[in-house]
Amino acid sequence: MKEKGRKVIATNKKARHNYAILDVYEAGVALMGTEVKALREGKASLVDAFATVDDGEVWLRGLHIPEYNRGTWTNHEPRRTRKLLLHKREIEHLVGKTREGNLTLVPLSMYFVDGRVKVELALARGKQLHDKRQDMARRTAEREATRELGRRIKGMRG
């Protein structure tokens, strides 16, 4: 019996901080058996991962899936390059976008959907330091506004 729904394996928390996300794609990943078993144990790291488009194929580089602890000589290499599975028109769109602009492909999260491993891939532009500061200031202002609104509501009741 297959499991239903979406089970998150790993997320790249720094991606939304370091990059401005323009577009998001869902891609399948070509994996070996021991890699899937290690992922089922919830072991993966997207920290240094990025994707490249080479000869009409999309490759995920820098993804760390540790060796399966009950694996034998057939175990996988932890940081090997893995192929991403996308439709041809999506790949052509990504090729055009990455060549024309200063854009990169960053994985946001990795998860199981109905027993298959998927990667949420973002077409993103790197943020400058002042952009990051503006985002932090905006979030702080929003947090203060909601906090003050909550205080006023509580003050009116009590």
TrEMBL record:
Q: Which organism is it from?
A: Lolliginicoccus lacisalsi
| Record's keyword terms, sorted | Cytoplasm, RNA-binding
What the protein does?
A: Required for rescue of stalled ribosomes mediated by trans-translation. Binds to transfer-messenger RNA (tmRNA), required for stable association of tmRNA with ribosomes. tmRNA and SmpB together mimic tRNA shape, replacing the anticodon stem-loop with SmpB. tmRNA is encoded by the ssrA gene; the 2 termini fold to resemble tRNA(Ala) and it encodes a 'tag peptide', a short internal open reading frame. During trans-translation Ala-aminoacylated tmRNA acts like a tRNA, entering the A-site of stalled ribosomes, displacing the stalled mRNA.
Q: Which residue intervals are annotated with compositional bias (Basic and acidic residues) in the record? A: 132-151
Membership in a protein family: Belongs to the SmpB family.
**Stretches the record annotates as Disordered:** 132-158
A biological-process GO annotation: trans-translation
Write down what this protein is called: SsrA-binding protein
> GO CC: one term?
cytosol
Per the UniProt record, which residue ranges are transmembrane? none
> Where the protein is mainly located, per its record?
cytoplasm
Q: Which PROSITE patterns match?
A: SSRP
GO-annotated molecular function: RNA binding
Superkingdom as given in the UniProt entry:
Bacteria
Q: Where in the cell is it found?
A: Cytoplasm
Q: Which CDD domains match?
A: SmpB
